[in-house]
Design goal:
The chain is built from nine helices and no strands. With 209 residues, it is an all-alpha fold.
């Protein structure tokens, strides 16, 4: 009796998690294609293959789905990328691997590409704009602080006059610049092809390594 109940509960929880994940990925696709205002819950649920009732079970409305999509899928995508900074390799090698992975996935990973498009290129009025901007600022601060700590504690020899925080800001700014430049005109270059050279240039600029 209890075994069956536990199995049923686990299956129900797994199904709910799968539905939520399907909605997040479908929402990202639709928001990237049509923008926030052009997307509807009907479009998103149809893309996900679930009912509108299932969507409302997980998200209060389209705005809540939009914020959750960006927050949760960014966390999932960047978790893999930030993992490149871990390990026992020399600090410059880990930083280079992190940059190569991030720049490569801008183009190679459709989820990262859509996230960048929705986050950077959106120029429409979104009801949750203030919340979204606050989330972006918080994420940038967290990323800058994380890189600052890495540069301060890793032993990576920075160029004279380059403080750890300056190095961190340089990395964040460079990555944002690469993303914006490519998204604005994807015929200019291939991030995946240029990733090793771009990463090496960024590392050389702050550390000369």
């Amino acid at each position: 009796m209890y075994v069956c109940d536990n199995l049923t509960m686990r299956r129900t929880a797994d199904e709910a998690a799968a539905t939520r994940k399907a909605l997040l990925h479908a929402a990202l696709e639709v928001f990237a294609e049509r923008g926030f205002n052009g997307a509807s819950l009907a479009d998103i649920t149809a893309r996900a293959g679930v009912t509108r009732g299932a969507a409302y079970h997980h998200f209060r409305d389209k705005s809540a789905l939009y914020l959750s999509t960006l927050s949760e899928l960014w966390d999932e995508a960047t978790g893999r990328i930030w993992a490149e900074l871990e390990g026992d390799a020399p600090p410059a090698d880990r930083l280079r691997a992190f940059l190569v992975r991030f720049i490569t996935e801008m183009e190679a990973d459709p989820v990262v590409r859509r996230l960048l498009s929705v986050t950077i290129l959106a120029n429409e009025a979104v009801p949750v704009h203030d919340t979204g901007m606050a989330d972006k600022r918080a994420a940038t601060k967290e990323q800058t602080a994380r890189l600052t700590t890495l540069f301060a504690e890793s032993g990576l020899p920075l160029r004279p006059g380059v403080a750890p925080e300056t190095a961190a800001l340089t990395v964040i700014s460079a990555l944002n610049g690469v993303a914006i430049t490519w998204l604005m005109d994807q015929s200019l270059f291939s991030p995946a092809a240029q990733a090793p050279t771009l990463a090496g240039t960024i590392v050389y600029g702050i550390a000369g390594a």
